[in-house]
UniProtKB/TrEMBL annotation:
Residues 748-773 are annotated as: Disordered. Residues 497-748 form the EAL domain. Residues 356-488 form the GGDEF domain. Keywords: Membrane, Transmembrane, Transmembrane helix. The chain crosses the membrane at residues 26-44, 50-70, 91-112, 118-140, 152-180. InterPro entries: Biofilm_reg_signaling, EAL_dom, EAL_sf, GGDEF_dom, Nucleotide_cyclase, PAS-like_dom_sf, Rev_trsase/Diguanyl_cyclase. It holds the Pfam family PAS_7. This is EAL domain-containing protein.
Length: 773
């Protein structure tokens, strides 16, 4: 059994035991009255003044006890120390013990002195009744129970034994187990109280924790019973719904509680929340105000009630809306992005009449990259924003406008008449072209367009965009603000182009391309000094495919560098076998010059074939310098420093700038065939060619004239001493490597190529490749 004495109990458990002693004052008053009446009756029947004395003692002790009872009521029990609690227990025990001993002595006096049966019977009856009440009133103090039991029983037992009467002696013996039973019962009640106190403390602790949890949880919580009345509502719920104190709401009907909300909930919101509370809806997002959102979720209880959780998700909704806006709308122009554009177009068709034509048109800003390169990306971005604004204005509310990528815009329009729809598209394209004022710059913009017009019910974003792209490619090939609508034959052409691309990839991977060489002779034809390596592709089904077709294709596929690697390798391998230290010239694209990987590639190939770097010429076009002048110049500088000769190809055909001739690391100028074609009949063209040659000579550059095909052209070149070398059909078309070897054997040996001699004339000795840059 657990030791429940004051010394072993903690203060918080000891206090409830002592508090139980000062309760149930009704029995105290009843006992007092019974004690006085019994003494009065005995006095009346026996005349024994001893019982008058007992009445006086009872009254005095009762007054003493009532006084301390009231004092106990007036103090703050929570502030009592353990020693103070023990003091209050002692005050109670003193009064109770005196009362019990007075009862016991009165009974003993009746048995031993008066020897009056009525008096003895009454005293014993009152004493026994008092002992029964000991359990109910005094279980909280083991000391009180023990002293009262002894006080009631001991005097009576001694008196019965002293009388010498057998039956009284037997009666006294029965009092002993009665007293022990009283103590045992009191102990059982005390242990029961102890368990209850522990349980009460645990319940209080759990209740406090639950209250803290409910008060501090971020979610709002409302618990309803089966009748829809509020059982539990936490502080967060009151805050979110602007309700009064939670204690005022318990037991109220939930719908009544909602009507007391400071949010002024609409009838529709009340209905939706009511459906939630009735279990008719699951997780629900409700908008209380323009920017206030609450998300409700519900769980059912086994007793028919529900637990409703909700939280303020306004910040999350705002963030989601912001993210959704970023996903749906282009940040630069504010136009719908591709995905949202498709969604808008599909929704528009679903909500309108079925029998309509629909137009899907892509607009591409012609030469936009040039604007970015020349004026900077800030100007480019502002130009795109200005074009978007004009496009939206011209399109109006009935046409959906979006931005695909980069400088591509898209519109979606519908109409009953196909011709009218196409005319509307032409008008829009015409309006968005023209002059734009951006950052004090006047920019003239051409916009190419490609579109498709089909029946609206067949709309499919992916399929229609492919068709529009095919039409746009046609328009861009013409340029200058061309608008082309899709035609069925474009599909077949697209399929053929894709098949050709696949075949080109295979040809590159399997090494099916070939290299031919076109010689460069001295104008008098006395010596072949260099050959230009030209790549060729013989398709197994379509025959010869011109480089003007597959080279741009390879560039768009990202394969041009693979072709360059192949041609460089083959050209250097063939050049080693040629006599007279003849040179070979290889073309590079802008893709080859980005990143500088070409430097390592050239070094590796030259090292592999032990080819003198001065025998390798690398040709670049003017457009390479226009695209990325700094990067290209740096890469060519590293190549030239290794001993390789650098030539500018097709000079005069692009965005020509004579400043290139002086500022860039070049050794040779190859003048395009366009300047030679009519020099015999057009004096102006002859003067232009003469000017370019003169300037190049002044800069100490070697000159190669391309495309010389007639004796008349050759004679003029020789007469005016325009060229150091001549390349063209007048001497030879492109021929295989073995044919070049045969021709080289016929030329005079022992003379180095013009590019190498030119470098020595300038005092620049070629260095081993790869030692610089």
């Amino acid at each position: 059994m657990k030791d429940l004495e004051a010394k072993t109990l903690p203060t918080e458990l000891y206090l409830p035991f002592v508090q139980s002693l000062f309760k149930n004052r009704g029995t105290l008053w009843t006992g007092m009255v019974v004690h006085i009446l019994s003494c009065a009756i005995i006095y009346a029947t026996t005349g024994a003044e001893f019982y008058i004395l007992m009445i006086a003692v009872f009254v005095t002790v009762f007054a003493y006890r009532i006084y301390w009872f009231r004092q106990f009521d007036m103090i703050d029990h929570s502030q009592l120390s353990k020693s103070e609690i023990e003091g209050w227990e002692s005050r109670y025990v003193h009064g109770a013990a005196i009362t019990a001993f007075v009862l016991g002595i009165g009974s003993a006096y009746a048995v031993l002195v008066l020897r009056d049966m009525l008096a003895a019977f009454m005293c014993i009856a009152v004493t026994m009744a008092s002992m029964v009440s000991i359990v109910g009133r005094n279980y909280g103090s083991a000391r009180a129970v023990a002293l009262q039991t002894i006080g009631c029983c001991l005097p009576l037992v001694l008196a019965c034994l002293l009388t010498g009467e057998l039956y009284l002696a037997l009666i006294s013996l029965f009092l002993i187990p009665f007293g022990l039973t009283t103590q045992s019962m009191a102990k059982g009640v005390r242990e029961f109280l102890y368990e209850n106190v522990l349980a009460s403390r645990e319940m209080t602790r759990i209740a406090d924790q639950l209250d803290i949890a409910l008060s501090t949880m971020t979610h709002a919580l409302i618990m309803l019973d089966a009748d829809g009345r509020v059982q539990v509502i936490n502080r967060r719920a009151c805050e979110l719904l602007e309700l009064p104190d939670a204690d005022e709401l318990k037991g109220a009907a939930f719908i009544t509680v909602l009507r007391r909300s400071g949010k002024s909930l609409s009838d529709d919101l009340l209905r939706k929340i009511g459906q939630l509370s009735a279990g008719q809806a699951g997780k629900t997002l409700l908008c209380l105000k323009e920017t206030v959102y609450l998300e409700f979720s519900l769980s059912h209880r086994t007793d028919g009630g529900v637990v409703m959780l909700f939280e303020d998700v306004s910040a999350r909704v705002a963030a989601e809306e912001k993210i959704l806006h970023l996903v749906r709308y282009d940040t630069l122009t504010g136009l719908p992005t591709r995905g949202y554009f498709a969604e808008l177009a599909t929704r528009y068709l679903r909500e309108t009449e079925a029998d309509l034509f629909a137009a899907f048109v892509i607009f591409d800003v012609d030469g936009f990259k040039h604007v970015n390169d020349m004026q900077g990306h800030v100007v480019g971005d502002r130009l795109l924003a200005a074009i978007a604004d004009r496009l939206v204005h011209e399109a109006g509310d009935e046409i959906i406008v979006g931005r695909l990528v980069g400088d591509e815009f898209v519109i979606f329009a519908t109409g009953r008449d196909r011709s009218a729809l196409e005319a509307r598209i032409n008008a829009i394209q015409a309006e968005i072209q023209g002059s734009y004022r951006v950052d004090r710059l006047d920019l003239t913009v051409f916009v190419n367009g490609g579109g498709v017009i089909l029946e609206g019910h067949d709309f499919d974003m992916e399929a229609w965009q492919i068709k529009a792209d095919l039409a746009l490619n046609d328009a861009k090939s013409v340029g200058n603000g061309t608008l082309t609508m899709f035609r069925p034959e474009m599909d077949a052409r697209y399929v053929a182009e894709q098949r050709l691309k696949a075949d080109l990839r295979t040809a590159i991977e399997q090494g099916d391309l070939t290299v031919v060489y076109q010689p460069m002779y001295r104008p008098d034809g006395s010596e072949m000094e260099c050959c230009e390596a030209l790549v060729r592709w013989s398709h197994p089904e379509r025959g010869f495919i011109g480089p003007n077709i597959f080279i741009p294709m390879a560039e768009s596929m990202g394969l041009i560098s693979e072709i360059t690697r192949f041609v460089l390798d083959r050209a250097c391998a063939d050049c080693v076998s040629w006599q007279n230290e003849m040179s070979v010239s290889v073309n590079l694209s802008i893709h080859d010059l980005r990143g500088g990987k070409i430097v390592a590639l050239v070094a590796d190939i030259l090292e592999r074939y032990k080819l003198d770097p001065t025998r390798l010429h690398l040709e670049v076009t003017e457009s390479c310098f226009m695209d990325e002048p700094v990067v290209v110049s740096a890469t060519l500088g590293r190549l030239r420093a290794s001993g390789v000769t650098i030539a500018i190809d097709d000079f005069g055909t692009g965005f020509s700038s004579l400043s290139y001739l002086d500022s860039l690391p070049i050794d040779i100028v190859k003048i395009d065939r366009a300047f030679v074609r009519d020099i015999g009949t057009e004096p102006r063209r002859l003067k232009l060619l003469s000017g370019i040659v003169h300037l190049s000579r002044e800069l100490d550059l070697k000159i190669v004239i391309e495309g010389v095909e007639t004796f008349e052209q050759l004679e003029l070149v020789k007469k005016h001493k325009f060229a150091d070398l001549v390349q063209g059909y007048i001497f030879s078309p492109p021929i295989p490597a073995n044919a070049i070897a045969e021709l080289s054997q016929k030329t005079t040996s022992g003379r180095r190529l013009a590019g190498r001699q030119n470098r020595r004339d300038k005092g620049v000795e070629p260095r081993a490749f790869g030692t610089t840059g």
